[in-house]
Design goal:
Layout: H1 2-28, H2 38-47, H3 49-64, H4 70-98, H5 113-123, H6 125-144, H7 158-173, H8 194-200, H9 203-212, H10 228-238, E1 256-262, H11 281-287, E2 291-297, H12 303-312, H13 335-341, E3 345-350, H14 359-365, E4 370-372, H15 391-402, E5 409-414, H16 436-462, E6 466-472, E7 487-488, E8 490-493, E9 501-508, H17 512-521, E10 541-546, E11 549-554, E12 557-562, E13 568-574, E14 577-580, H18 585-607
Protein backbone atom coordinates (compact mmCIF):
# COMPACT_ATOMS: atom_id res chain seq x y z
CA UNK A 1 0.00 0.00 0.00
CA UNK A 2 2.95 2.31 0.59
CA UNK A 3 3.70 2.13 -3.12
CA UNK A 4 0.22 3.41 -4.07
CA UNK A 5 0.34 6.04 -1.34
CA UNK A 6 3.63 7.27 -2.79
CA UNK A 7 2.12 7.40 -6.29
CA UNK A 8 -0.81 9.46 -5.08
CA UNK A 9 1.48 11.86 -3.22
CA UNK A 10 3.45 12.52 -6.40
CA UNK A 11 0.26 12.78 -8.43
CA UNK A 12 -1.32 15.31 -6.07
CA UNK A 13 1.91 17.30 -5.82
CA UNK A 14 1.94 17.69 -9.60
CA UNK A 15 -1.74 18.65 -9.65
CA UNK A 16 -1.27 21.27 -6.92
CA UNK A 17 1.66 22.87 -8.75
CA UNK A 18 -0.32 22.94 -12.01
CA UNK A 19 -3.31 24.61 -10.35
CA UNK A 20 -1.12 27.12 -8.49
CA UNK A 21 0.67 28.11 -11.69
CA UNK A 22 -2.70 28.46 -13.44
CA UNK A 23 -3.64 30.95 -10.72
CA UNK A 24 -0.34 32.78 -11.34
CA UNK A 25 -1.16 32.77 -15.06
CA UNK A 26 -4.50 34.47 -14.34
CA UNK A 27 -3.08 37.03 -11.92
CA UNK A 28 -0.08 37.93 -14.08
CA UNK A 29 -2.17 38.34 -17.23
CA UNK A 30 -5.18 39.84 -15.51
CA UNK A 31 -5.59 42.55 -18.15
CA UNK A 32 -6.33 39.80 -20.67
CA UNK A 33 -9.15 38.53 -18.45
CA UNK A 34 -10.62 41.85 -17.40
CA UNK A 35 -14.13 40.72 -18.36
CA UNK A 36 -14.00 37.82 -15.89
CA UNK A 37 -14.93 38.11 -12.24
CA UNK A 38 -12.62 36.31 -9.84
CA UNK A 39 -15.43 33.82 -9.17
CA UNK A 40 -15.68 32.99 -12.90
CA UNK A 41 -11.91 32.73 -13.17
CA UNK A 42 -11.74 30.39 -10.17
CA UNK A 43 -14.49 28.23 -11.64
CA UNK A 44 -12.61 27.97 -14.94
CA UNK A 45 -9.29 27.11 -13.30
CA UNK A 46 -10.85 24.22 -11.38
CA UNK A 47 -13.14 23.21 -14.25
CA UNK A 48 -10.00 22.07 -16.06
CA UNK A 49 -9.15 19.54 -13.34
CA UNK A 50 -9.42 16.66 -15.84
CA UNK A 51 -6.54 18.11 -17.88
CA UNK A 52 -4.58 18.72 -14.68
CA UNK A 53 -5.03 15.19 -13.37
CA UNK A 54 -4.44 13.72 -16.81
CA UNK A 55 -0.97 15.18 -17.36
CA UNK A 56 -0.05 14.72 -13.68
CA UNK A 57 -0.98 11.03 -13.84
CA UNK A 58 1.02 10.48 -16.99
CA UNK A 59 4.16 11.97 -15.48
CA UNK A 60 3.61 10.23 -12.13
CA UNK A 61 3.28 6.85 -13.83
CA UNK A 62 6.39 7.35 -15.97
CA UNK A 63 8.31 8.31 -12.83
CA UNK A 64 7.02 5.17 -11.06
CA UNK A 65 8.73 3.00 -13.68
CA UNK A 66 12.00 4.01 -12.01
CA UNK A 67 10.99 3.10 -8.46
CA UNK A 68 13.41 0.16 -8.37
CA UNK A 69 16.05 2.65 -7.23
CA UNK A 70 15.49 5.39 -4.65
CA UNK A 71 17.86 7.97 -6.12
CA UNK A 72 16.71 7.53 -9.72
CA UNK A 73 13.03 7.66 -8.75
CA UNK A 74 13.55 10.82 -6.69
CA UNK A 75 15.55 12.40 -9.50
CA UNK A 76 12.96 11.65 -12.22
CA UNK A 77 10.03 12.77 -10.04
CA UNK A 78 11.82 15.99 -9.18
CA UNK A 79 12.78 16.73 -12.79
CA UNK A 80 9.15 16.27 -13.86
CA UNK A 81 8.07 18.79 -11.24
CA UNK A 82 10.71 21.24 -12.48
CA UNK A 83 9.44 20.62 -16.02
CA UNK A 84 5.89 21.47 -14.95
CA UNK A 85 7.03 24.69 -13.27
CA UNK A 86 8.97 25.88 -16.30
CA UNK A 87 6.37 24.93 -18.91
CA UNK A 88 3.59 26.55 -16.91
CA UNK A 89 5.48 29.78 -16.28
CA UNK A 90 7.04 29.79 -19.75
CA UNK A 91 3.51 29.63 -21.11
CA UNK A 92 2.80 32.96 -19.43
CA UNK A 93 5.64 34.51 -21.44
CA UNK A 94 4.37 32.93 -24.64
CA UNK A 95 0.75 33.93 -24.04
CA UNK A 96 1.76 37.55 -23.43
CA UNK A 97 3.17 37.59 -26.97
CA UNK A 98 0.93 35.23 -28.96
CA UNK A 99 -2.35 35.41 -26.99
CA UNK A 100 -2.62 31.62 -26.95
CA UNK A 101 -1.20 28.69 -25.03
CA UNK A 102 2.03 27.01 -26.04
CA UNK A 103 1.24 23.98 -28.18
CA UNK A 104 2.82 22.67 -31.34
CA UNK A 105 5.15 25.71 -31.29
CA UNK A 106 7.09 23.90 -28.57
CA UNK A 107 9.10 22.33 -31.40
CA UNK A 108 10.76 25.72 -31.92
CA UNK A 109 11.79 26.10 -28.28
CA UNK A 110 15.25 24.58 -28.72
CA UNK A 111 15.92 26.54 -31.91
CA UNK A 112 15.36 29.85 -30.12
CA UNK A 113 16.21 28.75 -26.57
CA UNK A 114 18.72 31.54 -26.02
CA UNK A 115 16.38 34.23 -27.38
CA UNK A 116 13.49 32.91 -25.31
CA UNK A 117 15.51 32.92 -22.10
CA UNK A 118 16.93 36.40 -22.69
CA UNK A 119 13.46 37.74 -23.46
CA UNK A 120 12.03 36.11 -20.36
CA UNK A 121 14.61 37.72 -18.09
CA UNK A 122 14.51 41.11 -19.80
CA UNK A 123 10.73 41.51 -20.08
CA UNK A 124 9.44 39.28 -17.25
CA UNK A 125 12.31 39.41 -14.80
CA UNK A 126 10.48 38.78 -11.53
CA UNK A 127 8.41 35.95 -12.91
CA UNK A 128 11.47 34.36 -14.52
CA UNK A 129 13.34 34.75 -11.24
CA UNK A 130 10.47 33.07 -9.41
CA UNK A 131 10.63 30.13 -11.85
CA UNK A 132 14.39 29.84 -11.29
CA UNK A 133 14.06 29.94 -7.48
CA UNK A 134 11.22 27.42 -7.52
CA UNK A 135 13.21 25.09 -9.78
CA UNK A 136 16.32 25.25 -7.59
CA UNK A 137 14.28 24.80 -4.39
CA UNK A 138 12.47 21.81 -5.90
CA UNK A 139 15.77 20.18 -6.85
CA UNK A 140 17.21 20.70 -3.35
CA UNK A 141 14.11 19.34 -1.60
CA UNK A 142 13.95 16.39 -4.00
CA UNK A 143 17.59 15.53 -3.28
CA UNK A 144 17.06 15.74 0.49
CA UNK A 145 13.96 13.53 0.40
CA UNK A 146 15.30 10.69 -1.75
CA UNK A 147 15.79 8.41 1.26
CA UNK A 148 12.04 8.46 1.90
CA UNK A 149 11.26 6.80 -1.43
CA UNK A 150 9.58 3.38 -1.29
CA UNK A 151 11.08 0.99 -3.80
CA UNK A 152 9.33 -1.84 -5.64
CA UNK A 153 11.04 -5.15 -5.12
CA UNK A 154 11.25 -7.66 -7.94
CA UNK A 155 9.03 -10.37 -6.46
CA UNK A 156 5.79 -12.09 -7.47
CA UNK A 157 3.79 -8.96 -6.58
CA UNK A 158 5.80 -6.65 -8.83
CA UNK A 159 3.80 -7.02 -12.04
CA UNK A 160 0.34 -7.09 -10.39
CA UNK A 161 1.23 -3.84 -8.60
CA UNK A 162 2.39 -2.22 -11.84
CA UNK A 163 -0.75 -3.33 -13.65
CA UNK A 164 -2.96 -1.82 -10.93
CA UNK A 165 -0.91 1.37 -11.07
CA UNK A 166 -1.24 1.44 -14.84
CA UNK A 167 -5.02 1.05 -14.66
CA UNK A 168 -5.23 3.87 -12.13
CA UNK A 169 -3.06 6.07 -14.31
CA UNK A 170 -5.06 5.37 -17.47
CA UNK A 171 -8.23 6.38 -15.61
CA UNK A 172 -6.68 9.77 -14.80
CA UNK A 173 -4.90 10.15 -18.14
CA UNK A 174 -8.20 9.72 -19.98
CA UNK A 175 -9.69 12.60 -18.03
CA UNK A 176 -10.94 10.57 -15.05
CA UNK A 177 -13.18 8.57 -17.35
CA UNK A 178 -13.31 5.04 -18.75
CA UNK A 179 -15.10 6.17 -21.90
CA UNK A 180 -14.30 8.35 -24.86
CA UNK A 181 -11.01 9.35 -26.42
CA UNK A 182 -8.18 11.02 -24.51
CA UNK A 183 -8.81 14.69 -23.84
CA UNK A 184 -8.13 17.11 -26.65
CA UNK A 185 -7.17 20.73 -25.79
CA UNK A 186 -10.04 22.10 -27.87
CA UNK A 187 -12.49 20.46 -25.46
CA UNK A 188 -12.02 23.41 -23.12
CA UNK A 189 -14.33 25.15 -25.55
CA UNK A 190 -17.20 23.40 -23.76
CA UNK A 191 -16.99 26.43 -21.50
CA UNK A 192 -19.11 29.02 -23.30
CA UNK A 193 -16.86 31.87 -22.18
CA UNK A 194 -13.65 31.92 -24.21
CA UNK A 195 -11.58 33.54 -21.48
CA UNK A 196 -12.64 30.77 -19.13
CA UNK A 197 -11.63 28.19 -21.74
CA UNK A 198 -8.10 29.63 -21.75
CA UNK A 199 -7.82 29.38 -17.97
CA UNK A 200 -9.17 25.84 -17.90
CA UNK A 201 -6.34 24.39 -19.98
CA UNK A 202 -2.88 23.96 -18.52
CA UNK A 203 0.11 24.44 -20.79
CA UNK A 204 1.83 21.22 -19.75
CA UNK A 205 -1.06 19.18 -21.11
CA UNK A 206 -1.11 21.26 -24.30
CA UNK A 207 2.62 20.71 -24.84
CA UNK A 208 2.55 16.97 -24.15
CA UNK A 209 -0.48 16.58 -26.39
CA UNK A 210 1.45 18.30 -29.21
CA UNK A 211 4.59 16.21 -28.60
CA UNK A 212 2.65 12.95 -28.67
CA UNK A 213 0.79 14.00 -31.81
CA UNK A 214 3.79 15.35 -33.69
CA UNK A 215 2.73 13.81 -37.00
CA UNK A 216 -0.61 15.58 -36.74
CA UNK A 217 0.44 18.54 -34.64
CA UNK A 218 -2.39 20.65 -35.98
CA UNK A 219 -5.99 19.57 -36.34
CA UNK A 220 -9.09 20.92 -38.01
CA UNK A 221 -11.09 22.95 -35.52
CA UNK A 222 -14.77 22.15 -35.35
CA UNK A 223 -17.08 25.05 -36.12
CA UNK A 224 -20.89 25.20 -36.15
CA UNK A 225 -22.40 23.49 -39.18
CA UNK A 226 -24.38 25.37 -41.79
CA UNK A 227 -26.93 24.34 -44.42
CA UNK A 228 -25.26 23.62 -47.77
CA UNK A 229 -27.65 25.78 -49.80
CA UNK A 230 -27.10 28.70 -47.41
CA UNK A 231 -23.36 28.15 -47.68
CA UNK A 232 -23.43 28.15 -51.47
CA UNK A 233 -25.51 31.32 -51.55
CA UNK A 234 -23.21 33.03 -49.02
CA UNK A 235 -20.12 32.34 -51.13
CA UNK A 236 -21.87 33.64 -54.24
CA UNK A 237 -22.79 36.81 -52.38
CA UNK A 238 -19.24 37.35 -51.13
CA UNK A 239 -17.80 37.11 -54.62
CA UNK A 240 -20.63 38.69 -56.59
CA UNK A 241 -18.39 41.62 -57.59
CA UNK A 242 -15.66 39.45 -59.12
CA UNK A 243 -16.86 40.27 -62.62
CA UNK A 244 -15.96 43.94 -62.32
CA UNK A 245 -13.67 44.63 -65.25
CA UNK A 246 -10.48 46.69 -65.19
CA UNK A 247 -7.52 46.81 -67.53
CA UNK A 248 -4.81 44.53 -66.15
CA UNK A 249 -1.99 44.43 -65.56
CA UNK A 250 -2.23 47.97 -64.26
CA UNK A 251 1.49 48.53 -64.75
CA UNK A 252 2.92 47.94 -68.21
CA UNK A 253 6.46 47.48 -66.90
CA UNK A 254 7.62 44.84 -64.48
CA UNK A 255 8.56 46.79 -61.36
CA UNK A 256 10.66 45.42 -58.54
CA UNK A 257 8.51 44.41 -55.57
CA UNK A 258 9.61 44.94 -51.97
CA UNK A 259 7.26 43.33 -49.46
CA UNK A 260 7.86 44.65 -45.96
CA UNK A 261 6.46 42.36 -43.28
CA UNK A 262 6.70 44.93 -40.50
CA UNK A 263 7.24 42.76 -37.45
CA UNK A 264 4.49 43.16 -34.84
CA UNK A 265 3.39 46.62 -36.01
CA UNK A 266 -0.03 47.04 -34.51
CA UNK A 267 -2.45 49.63 -35.91
CA UNK A 268 -3.55 50.28 -32.33
CA UNK A 269 -0.24 52.07 -31.68
CA UNK A 270 -0.01 54.08 -34.91
CA UNK A 271 -1.36 57.61 -35.35
CA UNK A 272 -2.99 57.13 -38.79
CA UNK A 273 -5.20 54.47 -37.21
CA UNK A 274 -6.25 56.45 -34.16
CA UNK A 275 -3.34 56.37 -31.70
CA UNK A 276 -2.66 59.67 -29.93
CA UNK A 277 1.10 59.79 -30.67
CA UNK A 278 3.10 59.60 -33.89
CA UNK A 279 5.19 56.50 -33.26
CA UNK A 280 6.06 55.92 -36.94
CA UNK A 281 6.48 59.40 -38.49
CA UNK A 282 8.05 58.24 -41.75
CA UNK A 283 5.41 55.60 -42.41
CA UNK A 284 2.73 58.17 -41.54
CA UNK A 285 4.16 60.58 -44.14
CA UNK A 286 4.32 58.09 -47.01
CA UNK A 287 0.88 56.71 -46.20
CA UNK A 288 -0.63 59.93 -47.55
CA UNK A 289 1.01 59.19 -50.91
CA UNK A 290 0.07 55.52 -51.02
CA UNK A 291 -2.79 53.31 -52.12
CA UNK A 292 -4.29 52.30 -48.81
CA UNK A 293 -7.50 51.26 -46.99
CA UNK A 294 -8.82 52.34 -43.61
CA UNK A 295 -6.95 49.37 -42.08
CA UNK A 296 -6.12 45.71 -42.65
CA UNK A 297 -6.92 42.60 -40.61
CA UNK A 298 -4.07 40.12 -40.13
CA UNK A 299 -4.60 36.46 -40.92
CA UNK A 300 -3.00 35.21 -37.72
CA UNK A 301 -0.82 35.96 -34.74
CA UNK A 302 2.53 34.57 -35.88
CA UNK A 303 4.91 35.52 -38.70
CA UNK A 304 4.36 32.26 -40.57
CA UNK A 305 0.59 32.84 -40.43
CA UNK A 306 0.95 36.34 -41.86
CA UNK A 307 3.20 35.06 -44.64
CA UNK A 308 0.68 32.39 -45.62
CA UNK A 309 -2.29 34.78 -45.60
CA UNK A 310 -0.45 37.45 -47.60
CA UNK A 311 1.34 35.29 -50.18
CA UNK A 312 -1.20 32.51 -50.69
CA UNK A 313 -4.35 34.52 -49.98
CA UNK A 314 -5.57 31.62 -47.87
CA UNK A 315 -7.17 31.36 -44.45
CA UNK A 316 -4.84 29.84 -41.86
CA UNK A 317 -5.90 26.87 -39.74
CA UNK A 318 -7.99 28.40 -36.99
CA UNK A 319 -5.62 29.42 -34.20
CA UNK A 320 -2.57 27.87 -35.85
CA UNK A 321 -0.11 27.78 -38.72
CA UNK A 322 0.69 25.20 -41.39
CA UNK A 323 4.46 25.82 -41.15
CA UNK A 324 6.37 22.80 -39.82
CA UNK A 325 3.26 20.59 -39.97
CA UNK A 326 2.30 17.95 -42.56
CA UNK A 327 0.09 20.61 -44.20
CA UNK A 328 3.20 22.51 -45.34
CA UNK A 329 4.06 19.77 -47.83
CA UNK A 330 1.02 20.50 -50.00
CA UNK A 331 0.95 22.88 -52.94
CA UNK A 332 -0.62 26.30 -52.38
CA UNK A 333 -1.17 29.31 -54.61
CA UNK A 334 1.48 32.00 -54.13
CA UNK A 335 2.02 35.44 -55.58
CA UNK A 336 5.79 34.88 -55.35
CA UNK A 337 5.52 31.76 -57.50
CA UNK A 338 3.37 33.73 -59.95
CA UNK A 339 6.01 36.45 -60.17
CA UNK A 340 8.79 33.89 -60.59
CA UNK A 341 6.95 32.44 -63.58
CA UNK A 342 7.24 35.78 -65.38
CA UNK A 343 10.94 36.20 -64.71
CA UNK A 344 11.29 37.61 -61.19
CA UNK A 345 14.24 36.65 -58.97
CA UNK A 346 13.44 36.40 -55.27
CA UNK A 347 14.83 36.33 -51.74
CA UNK A 348 13.46 36.48 -48.19
CA UNK A 349 15.28 38.26 -45.35
CA UNK A 350 14.53 38.10 -41.63
CA UNK A 351 16.22 39.65 -38.65
CA UNK A 352 15.67 36.61 -36.43
CA UNK A 353 16.94 33.09 -37.05
CA UNK A 354 15.54 31.81 -40.33
CA UNK A 355 14.59 28.60 -38.49
CA UNK A 356 12.33 30.49 -36.06
CA UNK A 357 8.89 28.87 -36.46
CA UNK A 358 10.22 27.50 -39.73
CA UNK A 359 9.64 30.91 -41.36
CA UNK A 360 12.68 30.79 -43.67
CA UNK A 361 11.97 27.37 -45.15
CA UNK A 362 8.25 28.13 -45.22
CA UNK A 363 8.85 31.30 -47.22
CA UNK A 364 10.93 29.25 -49.64
CA UNK A 365 8.16 26.67 -49.99
CA UNK A 366 5.91 29.55 -51.06
CA UNK A 367 8.27 30.63 -53.82
CA UNK A 368 11.21 32.63 -52.44
CA UNK A 369 14.39 31.11 -53.86
CA UNK A 370 16.84 32.34 -51.23
CA UNK A 371 16.35 32.80 -47.49
CA UNK A 372 18.61 34.71 -45.10
CA UNK A 373 18.51 35.11 -41.31
CA UNK A 374 20.50 36.65 -38.49
CA UNK A 375 23.30 34.06 -38.70
CA UNK A 376 24.04 35.18 -42.25
CA UNK A 377 24.66 38.76 -41.12
CA UNK A 378 28.18 39.30 -39.80
CA UNK A 379 28.64 43.09 -39.83
CA UNK A 380 26.26 45.22 -37.80
CA UNK A 381 26.19 48.87 -36.84
CA UNK A 382 23.92 48.38 -33.82
CA UNK A 383 24.10 45.79 -31.02
CA UNK A 384 21.74 42.88 -31.57
CA UNK A 385 18.67 42.44 -29.41
CA UNK A 386 17.60 39.17 -27.83
CA UNK A 387 16.05 37.88 -31.06
CA UNK A 388 18.40 39.03 -33.76
CA UNK A 389 19.80 41.97 -35.71
CA UNK A 390 18.25 45.41 -35.64
CA UNK A 391 16.21 46.44 -38.68
CA UNK A 392 18.81 48.98 -39.85
CA UNK A 393 21.45 46.24 -40.16
CA UNK A 394 19.00 43.83 -41.78
CA UNK A 395 18.19 46.46 -44.41
CA UNK A 396 21.88 47.11 -45.04
CA UNK A 397 22.44 43.39 -45.55
CA UNK A 398 19.45 43.15 -47.90
CA UNK A 399 20.73 46.10 -49.94
CA UNK A 400 24.07 44.34 -50.46
CA UNK A 401 22.41 41.08 -51.50
CA UNK A 402 20.08 42.87 -53.89
CA UNK A 403 23.08 44.08 -55.89
CA UNK A 404 23.63 40.53 -57.12
CA UNK A 405 19.96 39.85 -57.87
CA UNK A 406 18.64 40.14 -61.41
CA UNK A 407 15.80 42.56 -62.13
CA UNK A 408 12.94 42.45 -61.76
CA UNK A 409 13.06 41.03 -58.26
CA UNK A 410 10.63 40.39 -55.43
CA UNK A 411 11.95 40.38 -51.89
CA UNK A 412 10.31 39.89 -48.53
CA UNK A 413 11.73 41.41 -45.35
CA UNK A 414 10.72 40.67 -41.76
CA UNK A 415 12.63 42.58 -39.07
CA UNK A 416 13.49 41.87 -35.45
CA UNK A 417 13.62 45.33 -33.84
CA UNK A 418 9.96 45.27 -32.81
CA UNK A 419 10.22 41.62 -31.79
CA UNK A 420 11.82 42.76 -28.54
CA UNK A 421 11.76 45.58 -26.00
CA UNK A 422 15.30 46.79 -26.71
CA UNK A 423 16.06 50.21 -28.22
CA UNK A 424 19.62 50.45 -29.57
CA UNK A 425 22.01 52.58 -27.55
CA UNK A 426 22.61 55.93 -29.16
CA UNK A 427 19.08 56.22 -30.52
CA UNK A 428 17.35 58.94 -28.54
CA UNK A 429 14.10 57.76 -27.03
CA UNK A 430 10.94 59.82 -26.92
CA UNK A 431 8.44 59.96 -24.08
CA UNK A 432 5.08 58.35 -24.90
CA UNK A 433 3.87 56.78 -21.67
CA UNK A 434 4.57 56.39 -17.95
CA UNK A 435 4.37 52.65 -18.52
CA UNK A 436 8.03 51.71 -18.98
CA UNK A 437 7.46 48.64 -21.15
CA UNK A 438 4.90 50.39 -23.35
CA UNK A 439 7.19 53.38 -23.74
CA UNK A 440 10.08 51.12 -24.77
CA UNK A 441 7.88 49.22 -27.19
CA UNK A 442 6.73 52.42 -28.88
CA UNK A 443 10.33 53.55 -29.19
CA UNK A 444 11.17 50.29 -30.96
CA UNK A 445 8.49 51.35 -33.44
CA UNK A 446 10.32 54.68 -33.84
CA UNK A 447 13.65 52.98 -34.47
CA UNK A 448 12.09 50.50 -36.89
CA UNK A 449 10.48 53.45 -38.68
CA UNK A 450 13.82 55.31 -38.75
CA UNK A 451 15.44 52.22 -40.30
CA UNK A 452 12.59 51.88 -42.78
CA UNK A 453 13.14 55.46 -43.94
CA UNK A 454 16.84 54.79 -44.56
CA UNK A 455 16.08 51.62 -46.52
CA UNK A 456 13.26 52.95 -48.67
CA UNK A 457 15.21 56.07 -49.63
CA UNK A 458 18.14 53.90 -50.69
CA UNK A 459 15.85 51.68 -52.76
CA UNK A 460 14.09 54.62 -54.41
CA UNK A 461 17.46 56.08 -55.43
CA UNK A 462 18.98 52.84 -56.74
CA UNK A 463 15.82 51.14 -58.04
CA UNK A 464 13.28 53.86 -58.95
CA UNK A 465 10.99 51.33 -60.66
CA UNK A 466 9.97 49.70 -57.37
CA UNK A 467 6.64 49.00 -55.68
CA UNK A 468 6.73 48.89 -51.89
CA UNK A 469 4.07 46.78 -50.18
CA UNK A 470 4.03 47.62 -46.48
CA UNK A 471 2.04 45.69 -43.88
CA UNK A 472 2.63 43.98 -40.55
CA UNK A 473 3.10 40.23 -40.39
CA UNK A 474 0.80 40.33 -37.35
CA UNK A 475 -0.16 42.71 -34.56
CA UNK A 476 2.01 42.75 -31.45
CA UNK A 477 1.68 43.73 -27.85
CA UNK A 478 -0.83 42.59 -25.26
CA UNK A 479 -4.19 43.81 -26.51
CA UNK A 480 -7.42 42.74 -24.85
CA UNK A 481 -9.93 43.31 -27.67
CA UNK A 482 -10.30 40.45 -30.18
CA UNK A 483 -10.34 42.67 -33.27
CA UNK A 484 -7.55 45.00 -32.12
CA UNK A 485 -5.32 41.93 -31.84
CA UNK A 486 -5.42 41.71 -35.64
CA UNK A 487 -5.61 45.31 -36.92
CA UNK A 488 -2.47 46.15 -38.90
CA UNK A 489 -1.27 48.88 -41.33
CA UNK A 490 -1.26 48.40 -45.09
CA UNK A 491 -0.01 50.53 -47.98
CA UNK A 492 1.15 50.13 -51.58
CA UNK A 493 3.70 52.88 -52.18
CA UNK A 494 5.25 53.69 -55.53
CA UNK A 495 5.30 57.50 -55.95
CA UNK A 496 7.05 57.36 -59.32
CA UNK A 497 4.55 54.88 -60.72
CA UNK A 498 1.20 54.98 -58.89
CA UNK A 499 -1.06 57.79 -57.73
CA UNK A 500 -2.23 57.91 -54.15
CA UNK A 501 -5.68 56.51 -53.41
CA UNK A 502 -7.66 56.01 -50.21
CA UNK A 503 -10.45 53.44 -49.88
CA UNK A 504 -12.71 53.70 -46.87
CA UNK A 505 -12.72 49.94 -46.31
CA UNK A 506 -11.34 47.27 -43.99
CA UNK A 507 -9.23 44.81 -45.96
CA UNK A 508 -7.92 41.34 -45.16
CA UNK A 509 -4.27 40.28 -45.28
CA UNK A 510 -5.52 37.76 -47.85
CA UNK A 511 -6.05 40.73 -50.20
CA UNK A 512 -2.32 41.41 -50.63
CA UNK A 513 -1.70 38.73 -53.28
CA UNK A 514 -4.76 39.53 -55.46
CA UNK A 515 -3.86 43.23 -55.42
CA UNK A 516 -0.30 42.53 -56.57
CA UNK A 517 -1.55 40.11 -59.22
CA UNK A 518 -3.86 42.76 -60.71
CA UNK A 519 -1.09 45.34 -60.53
CA UNK A 520 1.69 43.38 -62.23
CA UNK A 521 0.50 40.11 -63.80
CA UNK A 522 -3.11 40.25 -64.95
CA UNK A 523 -6.64 39.37 -63.89
CA UNK A 524 -6.54 37.94 -60.37
CA UNK A 525 -10.05 36.50 -60.73
CA UNK A 526 -8.46 33.72 -62.79
CA UNK A 527 -6.39 32.64 -59.76
CA UNK A 528 -7.25 30.57 -56.69
CA UNK A 529 -6.78 33.48 -54.29
CA UNK A 530 -9.53 33.90 -51.72
CA UNK A 531 -8.96 37.63 -51.22
CA UNK A 532 -9.98 40.74 -53.14
CA UNK A 533 -7.96 43.33 -55.05
CA UNK A 534 -7.76 46.90 -53.80
CA UNK A 535 -7.74 47.99 -57.46
CA UNK A 536 -10.77 46.06 -58.65
CA UNK A 537 -13.39 45.07 -56.13
CA UNK A 538 -16.24 46.99 -54.58
CA UNK A 539 -17.08 44.82 -51.58
CA UNK A 540 -14.60 43.52 -49.03
CA UNK A 541 -14.66 41.23 -46.02
CA UNK A 542 -12.13 40.21 -43.41
CA UNK A 543 -11.93 37.48 -40.80
CA UNK A 544 -9.95 36.80 -37.64
CA UNK A 545 -9.84 34.00 -35.10
CA UNK A 546 -8.97 34.63 -31.47
CA UNK A 547 -9.37 32.19 -28.58
CA UNK A 548 -12.36 30.29 -30.01
CA UNK A 549 -13.97 33.46 -31.39
CA UNK A 550 -14.41 33.75 -35.16
CA UNK A 551 -14.67 37.41 -36.13
CA UNK A 552 -16.09 38.67 -39.41
CA UNK A 553 -16.17 42.21 -40.85
CA UNK A 554 -18.14 43.58 -43.78
CA UNK A 555 -18.20 47.36 -44.22
CA UNK A 556 -18.93 48.76 -40.72
CA UNK A 557 -20.61 45.62 -39.40
CA UNK A 558 -18.86 43.05 -37.24
CA UNK A 559 -19.98 39.73 -35.79
CA UNK A 560 -18.03 37.54 -33.37
CA UNK A 561 -19.05 33.89 -33.23
CA UNK A 562 -18.32 31.48 -30.41
CA UNK A 563 -17.36 28.41 -32.44
CA UNK A 564 -18.27 26.04 -29.62
CA UNK A 565 -21.80 27.25 -29.00
CA UNK A 566 -22.61 29.02 -32.27
CA UNK A 567 -23.75 32.10 -30.33
CA UNK A 568 -22.68 35.43 -31.76
CA UNK A 569 -22.37 39.08 -30.77
CA UNK A 570 -22.87 42.07 -33.03
CA UNK A 571 -20.93 45.31 -33.33
CA UNK A 572 -20.60 48.45 -35.39
CA UNK A 573 -17.25 50.01 -36.20
CA UNK A 574 -16.85 53.60 -35.10
CA UNK A 575 -13.55 54.55 -36.75
CA UNK A 576 -11.71 51.36 -35.72
CA UNK A 577 -13.42 50.81 -32.38
CA UNK A 578 -16.12 48.18 -31.90
CA UNK A 579 -19.41 49.27 -30.38
CA UNK A 580 -21.89 46.61 -29.31
CA UNK A 581 -25.25 46.79 -31.07
CA UNK A 582 -28.43 44.74 -31.11
CA UNK A 583 -28.24 41.90 -33.62
CA UNK A 584 -30.45 42.29 -36.69
CA UNK A 585 -31.22 40.24 -39.79
CA UNK A 586 -28.13 41.58 -41.56
CA UNK A 587 -25.98 40.14 -38.77
CA UNK A 588 -27.52 36.70 -39.39
CA UNK A 589 -26.29 37.05 -42.97
CA UNK A 590 -22.81 37.98 -41.75
CA UNK A 591 -22.76 34.94 -39.48
CA UNK A 592 -23.70 32.75 -42.45
CA UNK A 593 -20.99 34.36 -44.56
CA UNK A 594 -18.37 33.79 -41.87
CA UNK A 595 -19.25 30.13 -41.30
CA UNK A 596 -19.64 29.39 -45.01
CA UNK A 597 -16.29 30.93 -45.93
CA UNK A 598 -14.50 29.28 -43.01
CA UNK A 599 -16.01 25.83 -43.64
CA UNK A 600 -14.99 26.02 -47.29
CA UNK A 601 -11.38 27.09 -46.72
CA UNK A 602 -10.73 24.92 -43.68
CA UNK A 603 -11.92 21.92 -45.68
CA UNK A 604 -9.58 22.93 -48.49
CA UNK A 605 -6.67 23.05 -46.06
CA UNK A 606 -7.29 19.77 -44.31
CA UNK A 607 -9.15 17.59 -46.79
CA UNK A 608 -7.97 18.49 -50.29
CA UNK A 609 -4.64 16.83 -51.03
CA UNK A 610 -3.61 18.67 -54.18
CA UNK A 611 -3.52 22.24 -55.45
Amino acid sequence: MLLFKQYYKILMLYVVFIIVTKVVFYLYLQDDFSDLSWQSATYAIFWGYRFDFSVAALLAFIASLFDFNKKIYALVSTLFLVLIINIQIGDIFYFSEASRHTGYEIFDAFIDAESLLLTAYSQHFWLALMALILSITTCIVGFLKWKMVVITELNRYYFPKKIILLVLSIFFIRGMSVQGIPLNPWQTGQLANNQQAILALNATYSVIFALTNKGKAIHQTHIPSINQSISDQSLKTLYADKNVGINTPILASKPNVVMLFLESWSAKYMQPYGYQHSTTPYFDSILKHSIRPKAMVAGGHRTSEGIFAALSSMQNPLGGAIAKTPLQDREYPSIVKNLSQIGYSSAFFQGTSKETSGVGSFAQSLGFVDSFGKRDIADTKYPRNNWGVQDYDLYQFALKKMQSMSSPFVIGINGATTHDLVVPKGFQQKYFSDNKDLNTMLNTYRFADFSLEYFMKEIKEKYPNTVFVLFADHAGGRISDNLENYLIPFAIYAPNILSAQYKDIIMSQRDVAPSLYDLIIGDYTKTQFSGKSIFRDAYYFADYFHNNVLGWIEAEDVVEINIQTGDFSCFKLNTLQKQAVKCENKHDDLRNHALSFTHYYQNLLFNVKSK
